[in-house]
Specification:
Blueprint lengths: L1 H8 L1 H26 L2 H21 L3 H22 L4 H21 L8 H6 L7 H30 L1 H6 L4 H23 L4 H15 L3 H26 L3 H19 L6
């Protein structure tokens, strides 16, 4: 269609459409991050994304594939280490997060022939959104939303009361791995929006803002998606009018919304 084609040919509208796609899945997954108190885990996966980018250069595969594969492998390693109980979870996450980021940066320094925008990888390059990026974002979003629809009850029950969920026969460990897979896909598709260092903020801040107003889990998810879209719109507008970096501007807008909601709204009944 001519109208859609014209929109996709404009870099601002491509950025807005891509941002909305990420907000669509960051909202519900961000709610699980908030409910399960997994912010540090999200940071660990986000930091490992740079290692995935390095591996994608080394073995010549698409960057998103390299990031998803690395994040999934790191998730499995985390689960195995947590079972052994050799280290406290927060200590283990801290070690893996910063080690993965450092290894990725060091490995990239040994590849001088490869041209890449390190700042864009770390903080996002939303205004350079391409049609291929949009396909990745909406393909990943469709897959994640399908998984959430399929496993919503089990994920919610294991989040509210894990032991009761086990008694009910819900495969808690398998659902934890599914959740980690979804986090990995979101990180891969959101790199273009806010970069690997700010992805967790896009997951947490809209969900935390929604928690102040929501009366039930589904309402919180819907509000988190709305606040995510608002952050993308405000961040892009700030970048357009004030010439600020787009990715950080999205996070700043989300934070300002969080402050306004928590400063002026009454908490919704549980």
């Amino acid at each position: 269609m001519p109208i859609i084609d014209a929109l996709l040919n404009d870099f601002f509208w491509r950025a807005l459409i891509g941002g909305f796609g990420v907000a669509l899945v960051a909202g519900p997954l961000g709610c699980f991050v908030v409910w399960r108190r997994m912010a540090y885990f999200g940071d660990t996966l986000a930091h490992s994304a740079l290692l995935g980018i390095t591996l994608s250069f080394l073995i010549s595969v698409p960057m998103n594939i390299g990031v998803i594969t690395t994040c999934v492998l790191l998730s499995v390693v985390l689960v195995l280490f947590q079972r052994s109980r050799a280290l406290a979870t927060d200590t283990l996450l801290g070690i893996l997060a910063h080690s993965a980021l450092a290894i990725g940066l060091v490995a990239l320094s040994f590849m001088p022939d490869i041209r890449f925008d390190l700042t864009g990888l770390l903080f996002g390059d939303l205004l350079a959104m391409s049609r291929t990026d949009l396909l990745w974002i909406y393909g990943g979003a469709a897959f994640i939303l399908a998984l959430l629809t399929l496993f919503w009850r089990g994920l919610l029950m294991s989040t509210i009361h894990e032991e009761l969920a086990r008694v009910e026969g819900i495969p808690v460990e398998r659902l934890r791995l599914v959740l980690m897979l979804m986090f990995s896909i979101v990180i891969a598709v959101a790199m273009k929006i806010v970069g690997v260092l700010l992805i967790t903020a896009l997951l947490i801040i809209p969900a935390a803002t929604a928690r102040r107003l929501a009366g039930n889990p589904e309402h919180m998810v819907a509000l988190a998606i709305g606040f995510g879209c608002l952050a993308v719109t405000g961040g892009l507008s700030m970048s357009w009018f004030l010439d600020t970096p787009a990715g950080p501007s999205v996070v700043v807008t989300a934070f300002c919304t969080f402050l306004l909601v928590y400063g002026g709204a009454r908490k919704a009944p549980a």
